[in-house]
Write a structure and sequence with these properties.
Blueprint: H1 7-21, H2 42-45, H3 48-64, E1 72-80, E2 82-88, H4 102-115, E3 121-127, E4 131-138, H5 141-149, H6 162-171, E5 180-186, H7 197-206, E6 209-216, E7 221-228, E8 234-240, H8 245-255, E9 259-262, H9 265-275, E10 281-289, H10 296-314
Parallel strand pairs: 2-3, 2-5, 5-6, 6-9
Antiparallel strand pairs: 1-10, 3-4, 7-8
Helix pairs in contact: 1-3, 3-10, 4-5, 4-9, 6-7, 7-8
Amino acid sequence: MLWGLLILPVYLAGYIWKNNDYRPELRISSLANLQGTRTSFRVYFRHVVCFLRMCTLALLIVILARPQSKSSWRDVKAEGINIIIALDISSSMLARDLKPDRIEASKTVAMDFIDNRPNDRIGLVIFSGESFTQCPLTSDHTVVKNLFSGIHTGMVDDGTAIGMGLATAVSRVDTNAKSNVIILLTDGVNNQGAIDPLTAADIAKAYKVRVYTVGLGTTGKALAPVGIDPSGRYQYGYVDVEIDEDILQKVAARTGGKYFRATDTEKLKKVYQEIDKMEKNIFEEKNFSKKKERFLPWAIAALISLLLEFVFRNTLLRSIT
C-alpha cells in the first residue's frame, strides 16, 4: 500500500500546473491608487490547503498499510520467588462447605494472589488419582490464570494422590533459585499414587523447597458428592470431612513450611500472606512481545489535517469562483 504514496508527486504537479495556468484579470483605468500596497499573506498562505490535502492523503495511505509494532524477545530481570501451586481436583473438592465449592474457592483466592504478586514466577500442578503439570514456572500470569480458570474435576482419574502431586510439583521447581515454594491444597487422605507424601517431602527438603500445606474443608460434615445419577450429574449428601492433617503437618514441618486448615475463604487467604515474608530471588527470563496495531496516531493526525483543511477552505482562504 505504501506504493500509493507515489500519487502525491503527481497530485502536486497537477496543482502547480493548474495554479500557473489560472490567471484571473481585472481591468482598471489607473494603478495610481494601488502604489505602495503590499501583497497579502493570503497569496502565499493559500497553498496550505493543498499541503493539508496531501498530508491527509499520505496519512490515509499509511493507515491502509497497517502500521504495527515489531514482535521481539527481550531479557527481563525481576525480583520475586518461584511458587508452584499444587491443587487437588478430586471429586470431593466439589463439596460446598466453601462457597460456591472447594475447588472454585481455591481457584478464586489463588488468582487474586497471582494478581498481587506481579514479579513472582508461578507454576501450576493438579492432582487427584494422578498428577501432571498444568503450567510450568512462568512470569506470564495471564497464561497461568487462563489455565486456572479451565481446571475442573474429572480431568484425571479420581482419588487423592498427595505424594504424587507434591513430587510432580518438586520436579517443576528451579533448582538454581534461592527461594522455591510449593503451596499444596487438598481436602482428603492420601489413597493412591506410587510415592508416599513423606517421601515426596524428603525430596522437597533435599532441593530446599518450602511446602505450605492446606487442608480444605470445615470440621464435621459437609455437603459433598455421594454418587452419580443416570443423567451423569453428581448427587449430593452430607458426609464426614476426612483430612489427613497429621501427614500434612509433617510434610510442612520437614520442609520448613507451615500447615493451615482453611475452613473458609478468609483462612485460605492467610496461606498466601505468609509468602510475603519470604526472601526474594532475582531471576532472568526472556519475554516475547507480540506486535500490535499502531494506526491510531496516524488516524488522529489524518483527522486533524482534514479538519484544518475544511476550516481554512471555508473561512480564511474561502474563494469565489
